[in-house]
Amino acid sequence: MDADTAPSPLPAGDPAAYRRAIRHWLETNLPPAWRSDAIARAEPSLEELKDWEARMHRAGLWGVAWPKAYGGHGLTLREHLIVSQEVGRLPMPESVNSIGKELAGPILLAIGTEEQKKRFIPAILEMREIWCQGFSEPEAGSDLAGLRTRATHDGKVWRITGQKIWTSGGFRAQRCLLLARTGTLEDRHRGLALFALRMDAPGVTVQRIRQIDGEAEFAQVFLDNAPVEEADALGAPNEGWKAAVRVLEIERATNRMYRAWRLENELRHLVSACRADPNLSALIADPAYAQRLAQFRIEIEVLKRYVEGVVEDLVSGGAIGGRGSLIKLHWSEAHQRFAALAMELLGQASLPPAPEVRAAQRRFRKIYMRARAETIYAGTSQIQLGIIADRILGLPRAA
């Protein structure tokens, strides 16, 4: 199949044919050296990843359920789920524009003007504009209602002053989905506004943050009277909290919908690497380790059912609601435990390690370190538990 040829349209009543087309395209076009489980792995450059994601869009794998009028493919979330499952099945590189495609895009489609949809959505899908998210601040991480970045209108444009932190991919982004305060700090949830900030605007300074794994994927963003045109304000100035809640629901439930299937791939890789080593092969046959690995098989199936249930409800006109917190809590906690188990096992490999084991050690070291943040970003586990108690269980608030 040609790299830019879209899979055949979904045959009526035959999603299996659609799945086969997606699977064939991915297996045919994903460079083998880009696989996280490759023994001789080569890290793709930013330009290579941008080109890869643009090709994925042209082939029908991004913007699956977005309207054709804005560059999408006009299918449903069911097809989007099929694509996500097939993406998760392979150890592919993470998207460098997941904020644009999984968070900014859905919000733009929900609250953006017609002009904004036509301007922003195709640019996201074609990888002409990468987005980052400007929510967290040094004094307002999970408590977004306490953010201090201010937006004031000078009669011509909005002016943004403040600081954002833990801004994933901020150094490479052209746009920022930015939440700022138009009212007073005491207003809390009221008086917040959402903007599509240009990252090259005057007064915007980006500083990368070095992480525990040696990479610098995060950034802090300083805003000094940075201008935002009226045409780049998203929704009404006093409805930013509603929009932010929608962003977080998406981030927790349907953003990177492939996570359960990627965790399944990681489990297969771990078991395969262990079987290539006599010490590890004996360990995973031990009932204690076998039971722990089987527990993650169960965790994966539970997470799949969560995601599939939300998709069916959304297709039927339902809302994500507090279930996004269930999904985020379950995945992040389970993934941390799994990463710890992988490091525990691989640390007991024979010396020198076989090539398959070295590849797994490289992959799972990175997964382990990155997983430390997964119970923090998009709201800490404590925040998720509070949302579940309030919105799902209906428990009374503590006095």
From TrEMBL:
It comes from the Bacteria. Its cofactor is FAD. GO terms for cellular component: plasma membrane. Residues 17-126 form the Acyl-CoA dehydrogenase/oxidase N-terminal domain. Gene3D superfamilies: Acyl-CoA dehydrogenase/oxidase, N-terminal domain, Butyryl-CoA Dehydrogenase, subunit A, domain 2, Butyryl-CoA Dehydrogenase, subunit A, domain 3. Keywords: FAD, Flavoprotein, Oxidoreductase. GO terms for molecular function: flavin adenine dinucleotide binding; oxidoreductase activity, acting on the CH-CH group of donors. The keyword Flavoprotein applies. InterPro entries: Acyl-CoA_Oxase/DH_mid-dom, Acyl-CoA_Oxase/DH_mid-dom_sf, AcylCo_DH-like_C, AcylCo_DH/oxidase_C, AcylCoA_DH/ox_N, AcylCoA_DH/ox_N_sf, AcylCoA_DH/oxidase_NM_dom_sf, Mycobact_Acyl-CoA_DH. Residues 238-393 form the Acyl-CoA dehydrogenase/oxidase C-terminal domain. Residues 132-216 form the Acyl-CoA oxidase/dehydrogenase middle domain. PANTHER family: ACYL-COA DEHYDROGENASE, ACYL-COA DEHYDROGENASE FADE29. Belongs to the acyl-CoA dehydrogenase family. This is Acyl-CoA dehydrogenase. It comes from Caldovatus sediminis. The lineage of its organism: Bacteria, Pseudomonadati, Pseudomonadota, Alphaproteobacteria, Acetobacterales.
